[in-house]
Structure prediction request, 389 residues.
Amino acid sequence: MVDFELTEEQKAACKMAHDFALNEMRPIALECDKEGKVPDDLVKKAAAAGLTAMAIPEEYGGGGLDPVTSAMVSEELAWGCAGIATTLGANSLATTPMVIAATEEQKKEYFPRLCDPDDPKFAAFCLTEPGAGSDAAAISTVVQETDDAYILNGQKCFITNGGIADFYSVFCTFDREKKYGGIAAVIVERSYDGVSVGKHEDKMGIRASDTSEVIFDNVKVPKENLFVPMGQGFYNVMTTLDLTRASVAALATGVARAAFEEALKYSKERVQFGRPIIAQQSINFMLAEMAMKIEAGRRLYQLAGWKASKGLPCSLESSYAKAYCGDMVMEVTVNAVQIHGGYGYMKEYLVEKLMRDAKIMQIYEGTAQIQRLVIGANLMGVTDAYPWV
Prediction:
């Protein structure tokens, strides 16, 4: 039998994250959405609680949370504010490729920087480019080897924490003609000459999260900063996304849960035709559907996280969770706004923000369509025809 009972450690981690979301994030969520940034004092509080280094192994100062617990913590934080949660969780995405492939020296050099509660730093995962979104093998950021260094040139876009990161995990190519076979990864510090931050994106949702262009112009990268050699970069990217998509599905679940709770509360308070609207079968059924789908999404991301924690292949389950939860959160938030009627369309009501936050869940870390491509390829048994699966 499958045991759904949480461990005491998991219960404690989720309670800590929920309390942080309730007391520190919710009170400022609408203001952070409006201002488009996360206050420094909140980042310091989050770092002190271990929320900026959840997935970094304990030996380097991180939380060392397993994928299931990390995802459940992400759900709680997204319940508080998806934009803030994205900011705090981006270190996990940036460092997972390094956990997989970096040398011990590289880990000792960079991981502790992200774990200092007194001076918290951020890292950023740099893959997406203007001409390479879903087609990650089309990246054109190029790295050239010289006698004493690598020279990096290119532009990355839609980079979470790109404008505030201390260093970047940059996926690049030694040879564009080789497509998958040319991809590698290097660690690039923000302080290197030639590194600059371009456009700061003005987004629909998760507005508290920094999303920026990062530009590399003849950046001299020390040879010891290569952490994924040529030919292994694409595999590293796909493995990374398999391991992190459960947390994205969890973020979606947290947003959906917040919207459901707002709709449930409102439906009990709003009186029309002489009784609370929850007594109307049409509203009652909407809420029932929302509750069922949120619970189903939670089980899917927990399954993906469980397989990842056991070292089992989890590409299919991660895509199940990411695709389902991305679609689910859109449906739930739209219906939450609908239940609120005209009030739900107003910015002073939380559900308006939640609906805007929801859309990105169908897009980042692999679109809803890419997830279905992965799932379909697995079902056909022809995954060798899809090198990204």
Summary: Residues 384-389 have pLDDT under 50 and may be disordered.
